[in-house]
């Protein structure tokens, strides 16, 4: 039994799960496991024998230890648990919004959001969420923003700082260019000090030194009705890494404007 089948085998028993999670912290002898687990002595012995047979644990001098395989199984268990916690924190949000636009690497890393808040508007109102974004922008010294749609309210609120960056979808550039009546960079760039690039992006987000604001598209064809806001250090790292990955593949705005 290997791979996913071993993982499925371990999680099919709460006693086996409890054992591997305890052993992830430190090796433990059988007696200590029996004392600390909410299971009968025979259940612990049976679980240890089963785990050893599957190559998940081995009995060393200091007690039972995880094998390399066992530690990978524990990592999968922990990741599944944290993913479930992320979803159940606000299940309605994840049921009604699209995550398929997020790169797979960052979809897997969603538990790094930690504690978050969902800001809702009823009825759905893009401008209401723009006000939330404006508040965040006005408090930030610098930030990085990805804009899938044109939001004029951002213009005066965006931090005028050399480290600020704007990632526009092509439709935003085209809208601003049409409104301004010019094809020059000055007509497109709304913040003098901000660096600007162009890339197709299907969700909006802003990350500053202290907060993240994420606007995923709703499942239904309707205006954005909810916005995710997080302030944990891990959420900032997640969003910063996401922004860098998008930025690296984006096109300089001058290059886009020079297209025939």
UniProtKB/TrEMBL annotation:
Domain Methanogenesis regulatory protein FilR1 middle: 133-249
Name of the protein described by the UniProt record: Uncharacterized protein
SUPFAM superfamilies: Winged helix' DNA-binding domain
CDD domains registered for this protein in UniProt: HTH_ARSR
Residues annotated as domain HVO-A0261-like N-terminal: 8-86
């Amino acid at each position: 039994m290997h791979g996913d089948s071993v993982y499925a085998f371990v999680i099919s028993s709460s006693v086996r799960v409890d054992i591997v999670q305890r052993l992830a912290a430190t090796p433990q002898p059988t007696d200590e496991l029996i004392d600390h687990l909410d299971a009968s002595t025979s259940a612990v012995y049976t679980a240890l024998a089963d785990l050893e047979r599957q190559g998940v644990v081995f009995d060393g001098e200091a007690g039972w230890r995880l094998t390399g395989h066992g530690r990978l199984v524990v990592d999968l268990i922990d990741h599944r648990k944290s993913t479930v916690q992320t979803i159940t924190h606000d299940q309605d949000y994840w049921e009604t919004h699209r995550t398929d636009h997020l790169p797979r690497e960052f979809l897997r890393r969603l538990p790094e959001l930690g504690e978050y808040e969902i800001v809702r508007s009823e009825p759905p109102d893009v401008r209401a969420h723009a006000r939330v974004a404006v508040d965040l922008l006005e408090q930030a010294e610098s930030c990085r923003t990805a804009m899938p749609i044109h939001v004029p309210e951002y213009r005066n609120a965006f931090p005028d700082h050399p480290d600020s960056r704007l990632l526009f979808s092509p439709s935003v550039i085209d809208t601003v260019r049409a409104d301004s009546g010019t094809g020059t960079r000055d007509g497109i760039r709304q913040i003098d000090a901000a660096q600007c690039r162009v890339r197709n992006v299907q969700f909006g987000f802003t990350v500053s030194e202290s907060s993240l604001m994420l606007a995923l598209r709703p499942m239904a064809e309707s205006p954005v009705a909810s916005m995710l806001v997080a302030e944990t250090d891990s959420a900032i790292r997640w969003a910063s890494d996401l922004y860098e990955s998008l930025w690296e593949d984006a096109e300089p705005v001058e290059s886009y404007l020079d297209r025939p």
